[in-house]
Amino acid sequence: MSPQQAVAELFALCATQGDGDYFGEPLSQLAHMHQAAELAAAEGADEELVLAAFCHDLGHFCAPLTAHNSMAGLGRRGHERVGAQWLLDRGFSARLAGLVARHVDAKRYLCWRNPSYLAGLSPASWQTLDWQGGPMDDREAAAFATDPLFADSLRLRRWDEAAKVSGGAPVDLGRWQALALRVRGAG
């Protein structure tokens, strides 16, 4: 698949699926993706990490949601792995897919490490934590801390939690599509 085809497929999916409610939060999925990417860009993250912030919840809508994989109406169980595989299948980098794949592990790690992070989760994020395995245990946390993507995964997770502000201007997908083309190697 060419970079142009991969990016076109990604943004067609965002345009058709992204306006849905962001499971228990006061904004659309697309607005959440946009806000996470904006936060990453504002902190000076590299373009691949900014795109990972944009794509981190892609797994909620790139594959069908069923009774078997639903987290009681709060999204798709395993969405991090589904989204990562979807990106890999379209030729996006292992780092980008890895960051998407690890954003739930980062949540679980931060809940283990920092009681104030756990206490500050939104009600929906608190509810999905159980579906995602709960806070890590000591062994899981020690292993995750050795992951080469550990630091960037934690950054992405913090942007994810902060990207839940209602209101705002409509999302201009053109900016993120141009970024995706550069990251995928076509821009």
TrEMBL record:
Species in which this protein is naturally found: Zestomonas insulae
Protein name: HD domain-containing protein
Domain HD: 33-108
Superkingdom of origin organism: Bacteria
